């Protein structure tokens, strides 16, 4: 009885012709081994990233954790943007992730002009269909109060009486709140 171990490194079915070494004279007959490699599996910390409202001229980072939940090494094919505006990859994942291990990828958003930020980040590992992570945000100027009423008139108040209230309409064109 002979035990043969065949370890393909990819998931499609493969075959390999084999001959056994013999200690004595003669040649062993050739036979073929067939099999499939094991699948890697990936889990990410964020299915999407929404940076929300961000102040101009600052940069904002988000780190995506990538975990190999399978039982074979994950080989990175690509990490790229399908579309992007004001988003960059500032830390690429490593070329491979061992089973049970975690890696990361960092994206950065920033601009000096009011604008939107968006991207579709595509990650693809060998043997796994590519998957997309949408990224979004809005870059805005600092908050600013704009008075819409040009004249504000307060009614007369007697000395010693409490003050009177008058409403003033204001607006803030920034997505950043006024404290």
**Terminal Cα span:** 79 Å
The description of the largest β-sheet is:
5 strands, mixed
* Rounded average pLDDT: 82
Coarse structural class: mainly beta
Count helical runs: 0
Helix content: under 10%
Looking across the biggest beta sheet, what order are the strands in?
A: 4-11-10-6-8
Structure, described:
The chain has 179 residues and is an all-beta fold. Helix content is 0%, strand content 46%. The protein is built from no helices and 13 strands. The protein has strands at 14-18, 31-35, 42-44, 49-55, 59-68, 74-85, 87-91, 96-97, 102-110, 115-125, 131-140, 146-147, 170-171. A five-stranded mixed sheet has the order 4-11-10-6-8, with no helix packed on it. It has a four-stranded antiparallel sheet with strand order 3-5-9-7, with no helix packed on it. The protein is rod-shaped and about 120 Å long.
What is the gist of this entry?
This protein is an all-beta fold and 179 residues long. It has strands spanning 14-18, 31-35, 42-44, 49-55, 59-68, 74-85, 87-91, 96-97, 102-110, 115-125, 131-140, 146-147, 170-171.
């Amino acid at each position: 009885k002979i035990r043969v171990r065949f370890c393909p490194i990819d998931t499609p079915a493969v075959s390999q012709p084999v001959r056994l070494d013999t200690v004595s004279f003669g040649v062993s007959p050739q036979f073929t081994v067939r099999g499939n490699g094991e699948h890697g599996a990936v889990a990410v910390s964020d299915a999407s990233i929404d940076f929300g409202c961000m102040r101009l001229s600052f940069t904002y980072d988000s780190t995506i954790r990538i975990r190999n939940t399978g039982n074979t090494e994950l080989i990175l094919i690509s990490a790229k943007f399908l579309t992007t505006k004001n988003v960059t990859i500032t830390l690429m994942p490593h070329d491979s992730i061992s089973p049970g291990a975690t890696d990361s990828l960092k994206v950065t958003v920033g601009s000096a002009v009011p604008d939107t930020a968006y991207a579709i980040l595509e990650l693809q590992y060998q043997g796994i269909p590519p998957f997309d992570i949408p990224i979004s945000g809005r870059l805005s100027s600092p908050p600013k109060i704009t008075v819409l009423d040009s004249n504000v008139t307060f009614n007369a108040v007697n000395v010693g009486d409490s003050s009177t209230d008058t409403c003033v309409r204001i607006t803030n064109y920034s997505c950043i709140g006024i404290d």
